[in-house]
Amino acid sequence: MIDALPPLRDVIARHDLRAKKSLGQNFLLDLNLTARIARAADERGGDLSGCDVLEVGPGPGGLTRGLLAEGARHVLAIEKDPRCLPALAEIAAAHPGRLTVLQGDALAIDPLAHLTPPIRIVSNLPYNVGTELLVRWLTPPGWPPFWQSLTLMFQREVAERIIARPGSKAYGRLALLAQWRAQARIVLTLPPEAFSPPPKVSSAVVHLTALPAPRYPAEPAMLQRVTAAAFNQRRKMLRAALRGLDPMIESRLERLGIAPTARAETLDLAAFCALARDLSDTRD
Length: 284
Ligand code: SAM
Known about the structure:
Elements: H1 8-14, E1 27-28, H2 31-40, E2 52-56, H3 62-69, E3 74-79, H4 85-94, E4 99-103, E5 119-124, H5 130-138, E6 149-155, H6 156-163, H7 173-181, E7 182-190, E8 195-196, E9 203-210, H8 220-232, H9 238-241, H10 249-255, H11 269-281
Parallel strand pairs: 2-3, 2-5, 3-4, 5-6
Antiparallel strand pairs: 1-8, 6-9, 7-9
Bound molecules: S-adenosylmethionine (SAM).
């Protein structure tokens, strides 16, 4: 028992919250599990009491309850499905002043007006907007970002793309974007049966901690251009994949000590950043 509220199965039945596929609704019903995810949000192993937490897609509130039980100072929950609001209002009533619920599309709402630093983001994301939200959180106008850490549930395949290392099949733009300015690791993997209804694939929780500064200097827009060009044609050699960025790319790569015949998936973050810097420096 993490709180005195009714079990989630009862909440879902009472409010008739039949899961909608179009909203990516796969609910977590085990409150011990949601409390574990909330604990994973604090890498120091303590509680969340000093932090505001942004949660996207609280649904019937399993993870929300976990976050509140773990002591989050304030939770801002953004939920698109209005059917979930009465259930969430019950949680808010049980924790006066600690839960604010906004109804709407998380892609269209600016949460910052409702949050006070330090801020952590903890969510079991709807699969259809999960990657888009992550990319937004990883590409703020300046660094460090408004959040200290992200603790996010994804389909396992997406989680593996976030933490992937060079040379692996999952390595690509998402790994580079995430690992350039954050420390990323998988903290929990869950089988489909952990959810109701069970999705087709396994899920995993990724914990990302914002680094104070990028691991290697580079202009964000140029790094994005280079990685997009390299991985959009990942089977091609770099000299062919990157020709659009610079007709003389072969000699540039050689000068930087990068084999022009290498493929994008073998190049590490340091090399991509060096290439982005070199292209920025010599741009007309
Ligand atoms: N947090 C709950 C849990 O762990 O059981 C529900 C997670 S479920 C995978 C995703 C939730 O995101 C659903 O409640 C769904 O209605 C909501 N959702 C879907 N698209 C959304 C959007 N664009 N903005 C905000 N919430 C959204």
